[in-house]
Amino acid sequence: MNKKQMQTELTKKRVADAARALFAQKGYKGTSIEDIVDATGSSKGNIYYHFKSKEGLFLYLLDEWDLEWERKWREKENSYHTTVDKLFGIAEQMVLDDLNHPLTKAADEFFNNEEKTNEVDERMAVMVDRHLLFNKELLQEGINRGEFKDDNVDRLAIVFEGFFMGLGQMSRRKNKPEEALQLYHAAVKVFLYGVAKEK
Predict the structure, then answer these.
(1) What is the pLDDT of residues 33-91, one digit of tens each?
(2) Are 128 and 161 in contact (CB under 8 A)?
């Protein structure tokens, strides 16, 4: 990386770090590009050069959060001995990380914004595809190890993602992390074993 590229990356990081703090403090709607300009000393043009828009900047931060979540998971994944244990481990990480993350409230605000551009839809689709691939690989591992029955892994990956996306929204209403964790554990059990009595 040459000096100019290094300077560009440092500027981008400085803007992203300042914006993250502002979004966490003031929310998505409450943070303006002018706030970010004031916090960083960068010009609007410089911010738009790196991120194209406020939405683009927030999507960049969400993508960083997503990749950081996966990095944390990969660091501890081998401590779980079965794929079933991994599903419960993912539930725990989601409660501890996602519900306590400084951008959680701003992300809820962002996703509930009705005025989404094509860029937002496209980048969100990329994130969802990454989640589905993650789920698919994990569930296929369980099938390969004989822990799960051989089923349509693409469909299972979507169901699992749907469980956790919906649960993420519902569990935000719980004030205590242990209550949210109980919900996530219940969801994993329903996913694994269903709710119908055996005949």
Answers:
(1) 999 999 988 889 989 988 988 999 999 999 999 999 999 999 999 999 999 999 999 99
(2) yes
- Tokens (6 digits) for 61: 């931060």
- Type of residue at 32: S
Distance of alpha carbon 110 from alpha carbon 105, whole angstroms: 9
Distance between alpha carbon 31 and the CA centroid of its chain, in Å? 21
Structure tokens belonging to residue 64: 């960083």
Are the C-beta atoms of residues 99 and 182 closer than 8 Å to each other?
A: no
* Residue 103 · residue 65 · CB < 8 Å: yes
Contacting residues for 184 by C-beta, under 8 A, at least 6 apart: 91, 92, 94, 95, 164, 167, 171
Cβ neighbours for 99, distance < 8 A, ≥ 6 positions apart: 168, 171, 172, 177, 180
The DSSP line for 36-82 is: HHHHH---HHHHHHHHSSHHHHHHHHHHHHHHHHHHHHHHHGGG-SS
107: its two tokens: 């992300």
Task: Extract the tokens encoding 37.
Answer: 């300009």
Q: Report how far residue 91's alpha carbon sits from residue 36's, in angstroms, rounded to the nearest whole number.
A: 34
User: Judging by beta carbons within 10 Å of its beta carbon (0-12, 13-18, 19+), is residue 33 exposed, middle or buried?
Assistant: middle
Sequence-ordered list of residues with C-beta below 8 angstroms from that of 10, at least 6 positions apart, any chain: none
DSSP state of 152: -
- What pTM did the predictor assign? 0.85
What amino acid is encoded at 67 in this protein?
L
Residue 188, token pair as written in the block: 């994993």
